[in-house]
Structures are given as C-alpha cells and as structure tokens.
Design brief:
This is Response regulator. The protein is an alpha/beta fold. It contains eight helices and 13 strands. A five-stranded parallel sheet has the order 2-1-3-4-5, sandwiched between helices. A five-stranded antiparallel sheet has the order 9-8-7-6-13, covered by helices on one side. The protein has a three-stranded antiparallel sheet with strand order 10-12-11.
Length: about 240
C-alpha cells in the first residue's frame, strides 16, 4: 500500500508531537498535530485525517472521552498512544472505538507497522468480483453488506463498526451455527498480530453485542460457548 494517508497526532507533549511528525513524515505520510480535543476538532475541519494517534492523559478532556466522541461521529482510524499501561484503560479504549492501543515508549518500527495495519483496513476497498456469490447477509433485524463494510437495521439505521468489529461480525455471520474458537476468529481478522493470551476478541464481541443485541447481557445472536469460543445462532439469508 502506498504511504499516502493523513495522520493527526493528538498529544499535549510537543516533544512527542515533533518526534512523531518527523518519523511519520519521513515514512511518506502527511501529518498534523493538535494538543487537545478542541484543537483536534478544529484541525479536522480542514485536515481530512485517515488516522488519529491519540494520547489519553491530557489537560481538560480525557483521551478516552475524545475517542468515544470521535467514534460516534467518524469512521477515522484511532490508535491510542499513551504512557498508561493500565489494562482497564486499554479495555475501555477498545470498547470506546479505538482500533489499537500502544504504550509509550514504542519502538518506531512497531508503531509504523501498527499504523500501516490500521490504514490498510481503512483505505483498502474490497475488489469487485463478479464471481463472488452473495455479499449482503440478512439476519434478525439487520443487513450486513460485506462489499461496502456496512451494517444497518431493516429500518434504515446505519451502525458504525470499527474494522475489527466488522471483520469479526462478518466471520460469525458467514459461519452461522458453527462454533468458532478464539483462534479461528483471530485468523479472520486481517492486519493484527494476536498473542495467545490476547482477550481483545472478548472485548470486541462485547462491543458487537451492544450494537446488535436487544439485550447485550442476555445475547440471542452471538452465543458464548464456554471454553470453546462463540457461535452465531440467527438464521441468515442472502440479499442483493
């Protein structure tokens, strides 16, 4: 993929901003910086960001609140880049819509690999393939379009999904009534390196349930198979 994307760094530490600006610019990206949420929103009025690198602990509006608000209004990629190694912050950040979470200090090559991974999912459109069978899956009160990466209700309401959420939901729906282990689910998610102890799948399943289940605490569509994985139990039909 060509390094042709816009990245917005949101961090109140100007030293960090200068380092990221220099490194990401040298990798071919167009980079802008902002010191807080207000500056970020002002910048985004004229700067078409594809990805936001977001710090958490900034004066005023906390990064987690910025992340949640940004996800409600935009499909931009979000990588939380913070000094906080608190697992709670990581889980809340992922639940709030972040695509990835990195703890400072981060090795430059790893940062670039994570940036490329998120941008690849955001900017790469699925190729049109006339031999592909059905790309629209219907279940319960939902319409999942595999070609356009969209989820909407039968009433016409669009639901925002992060790239990870979409890939996991697509894997589950496409394999309805089959049990998928966490490893199998991980294999369906492109562009992310998982480790055996990674519980992000469970976090993402929880986020998906909040968006498609009538009662997320008592899910009827995505069932947990304890000790095994998950299964999608709704009847799935194909549309056009």
């Amino acid at each position: 993929m060509s390094e042709d994307a816009n990245i917005l760094v949101v961090d109140d530490d100007m030293r960090i901003c200068r380092i990221l600006l220099r490194y990401l610019s040298s990798a071919g990206y167009t980079v802008a910086v902002a010191a807080n949420g207000d500056e970020m929103r002002e910048c985004m009025q004229s700067f078409a960001a594809d990805l936001v690198l977001l710090d958490l602990n900034m004066p005023g509006e906390h990064g987690l609140d910025i992340c949640r608000n940004l996800r409600h209004t935009s499909d931009v990629g979000i990588i939380i880049l913070t000094g906080s190694s608190d697992k709670v912050d990581e889980i809340v950040g992922l639940e709030g819509g972040a695509d990835d979470y990195l703890v400072k200090p981060v090795e430059e090559r790893e940062l670039l690999a994570r940036v490329r991974s998120v941008l690849r999912r955001i900017l790469t459109k699925p190729a049109n393939d006339s031999s592909e069978k059905k790309s629209v899956l219907l279940f319960s009160d939902w319409i999942l379009d595999l070609a356009s990466h969209e989820l909407r209700s039968t009433a016409g309401e669009d639901v925002r999904l992060t790239s990870y959420e979409f890939q996991i939901l697509a894997a589950l729906v496409s394999n309805a009534n089959k049990i998928l282990s966490r490893d199998q689910i991980m294999n369906h998610v492109k562009g992310r390196d998982w480790i055996a102890s990674d519980r992000s799948v469970d976090v993402l399943i929880g986020k998906i349930r909040k968006k498609i289940e009538k009662d997320p605490k008592n899910p009827a569509l995505v069932k947990t198979m304890r000790g095994i994985g998950y299964t999608f139990t709704a009847r799935v039909t194909y549309g056009t």
